[in-house]
Specification:
Helices cover 61% and strands 0% of the residues. It has 83 residues and is mainly α. It has one domain. The longest helix has 17 residues.
């Protein structure tokens, strides 16, 4: 129950929190850690981070991001990234 409340609070602070891409980001990237604010990194930094996390997901035995999921998440993060 506490996990649900904490995860809901994180989503409320995300830009466009109810968009498909934001919900996908929280669902997939939030499996293992808090879904960080897109503003915490630049777009270029998110590109590297998403690739690294995709590799870690595979190592942990979690389903890898599909190309469509990766594009949607990365587009969302870059659109809302630090400048």
């Amino acid at each position: 129950m506490a996990w649900w409340i904490m995860s809901w609070g994180c989503r409320q602070n995300l830009p466009d929190a109810q968009s498909y891409a934001a919900r996908l980001y929280v669902a997939r990237c939030g499996q293992c850690h808090t879904a960080y604010s897109p503003r915490s990194l630049t777009g270029a930094m998110w590109e590297v981070q998403v690739e690294m996390m995709d590799a870690r997901m595979r190592q942990a035995g979690l389903p890898a991001l599909s190309e469509e999921e990766k594009r949607a998440i990365l587009s969302y993060l870059k659109k809302n990234a630090a400048r």
